[in-house]
Amino acid sequence: MPTFPSVYDTLYQAFGPQNWWPAETPFEVAVGAVLTQNTAWINVERAIANLKAADCLGPATLHAMDPAELAGLIRPAGYFNIKAQRLQALCRFLLDEADGSLANLTNRDTSALRAQLLGIKGVGEETADSILLYALHRRVFVVDAYTRRIFERLGLLKPGLGYGAIQAAFEGNLPRDRSLFNNYHALIVALGKDYCKPKPRCEACPLQDLCPSAVT
DNA sequence: GACCAGGCACATC
DNA sequence: GATGTGCATGGT
Question: Chain A, 41-70: which CBs lie within 7 Å of strand B?
Answer without folding.
Answer: 41, 43
